[in-house]
Amino acid sequence: MNTKKKILVTGGTGYIGSHTAVELINKGFDVYIIDNLSNSHAEVVDSIEKITGTRPFFANIDLNNKSAVNEFLRVHSIDAIIHFAAFKAVGESVEKPLEYYRNNIGSLLNLLELCREHNIKNFVFSSSCSVYGQPDYLPIDEFAAVKPAQCPYANTKKIGEDILKDTAKVVDINIISLRYFNPVGAHPTAMIGEYPIGAPLNLFPIVTQTAIGKREKMMVFGTDYDTADGSCIRDYIHVVDVAIAHTVAIERMLNGQSKDRYELFNLGTGNGLSVLEVLNAFEKITGVKVNYQLTDRRAGDVEKVYADTSYANKELGWKTTRTLEDMITSAWAWEQVLQKKYAEA
Ligand code: WQD
To answer: Which ligand 1 atom is nearest residue 231's CA?
Structure first.
């Protein structure tokens, strides 16, 4: 009899979802992916199989199609869900608030109602450090007040957390929200990485695209922040460390180690780095110059944010092990793979 626990990864062909699928398979879980491929590629399933030697089950389903998800859950007896699938572009969310609320909140509600119906008792939610806004103190811990969201995308994460907290009060389900700081880098095999359908908007892919010549130059947003060099500070974390944290959260719930039905943890390294520090490190580590220009602040950016990791380190027994060099070398190797993929497409 197959006694492997079955984990459903929604958004499993996406950036963080695909890395998490790999780590789950490596730990011996049976992985099921649901994704509607709205911002990812079906070939990621092949890549996961190449890396792990095991092909995850894949279904192209939109989570807003509740009857399709219901049918999926009726056929497969799932033990736990990790819910990544969501729209995530900050600027786009300002332009399309209804699409963002409908997609991100609607899919979460569908999944939670179906968890109740199918008696699925373990749920991990992708949240974001954006719920802290500009924190009143740094490093920021999980007990800090949540601030008004800066954009509809961030608000879907804040509302999502509220929905989960209220649900755990009355439904017999373990829920863990993981608040990501800035996930970057790619798998060390360079077989999976960030592979969005449109143009990326985050710092790391913009740096690597500029270095490889796909972009002529890039902008550094802001020169007058209250930081040593005037640029913003973030807590960049290797995507594989983020993925491993999800497997730890799943094991915590399945082993009955949760302290509360609703828990939340920061996923960061605890190190704040400025944009200019990232650029300097990139040039030093790769030996490739990046053509960048200093410019005005970007609307909506917080000045600095980095995690207090002590609670996650102690309670989850999880700690990041990958360095800035690992983040940069893996992101750079992946950009070279992407260049070939886009050339062939
Ligand atoms: C990092 C720093 C920019 C691009 C966002 C979301 C957050 C999370 C991750 C996930 C900032 C600077 C960037 C560029 C630059 N969500 N920058 N030039 O804004 O911290 O977080 O993504 O899906 O919820 O808000 O990440 O990578 O966009 O920016 O100078 O061309 O790099 O100003 O200081 P951010 P980012």
So the answer is: 34
What's the mean pLDDT in 156-184? 98
Rounding to the nearest 10 degrees, give the CA dihedral for residues 59, 256, 27, 18.
40
What is the enclosing helix (H) or strand (E) of 35? none
Domain range list for the chain = 6-184+237-269+307-321
pTM of the model: 0.98
The top-level CATH class assigned to 6-184+237-269+307-321 is alpha beta
Q: Is 73 exposed, middle or buried (0-12, 13-18, 19+ CB in 10 A)?
A: buried
Please identify, by atom number, the ligand 1 atom nearest to the C-alpha of residue 157.
24
- DSSP track, 172-191: S-EEEEEEE-EEE---TTSS
Tokens of 259: 């302290």
Q: Which of 202, 212, 206 is nearest to 236 (CA)?
A: 202
Residue with tokens 């190797």: 333
* Residue owning the nearest CA to atom 36 of ligand 1: 202
Q: Give the pLDDT band of residue 1 (cuts 50, 70, 90).
A: low
Distance from residue 48's CA to the centre of ligand 1 (Å):
27
Q: What is the DSSP letter of 13?
A: T
User: At residue 98, does pLDDT exceed 80?
Assistant: yes
pLDDT digits (tens, 9 = 90+) for 287-309: 999 999 999 999 889 999 999 99
Q: Does the C-beta of 182 come closer than 6 Å to ligand 1?
A: yes
Q: Is the dihedral of CA 53, 43, 190, 123 positive or negative?
A: negative
Per-residue pLDDT of 216-240, as tens digits, reads 999 999 999 999 999 999 999 999 9
- Ligand 1 contact, 219 CB (< 6 A): yes
Q: What is the pLDDT of residues 183-222, one digit of tens each?
A: 999 999 999 999 888 888 899 999 999 999 999 999 999 9
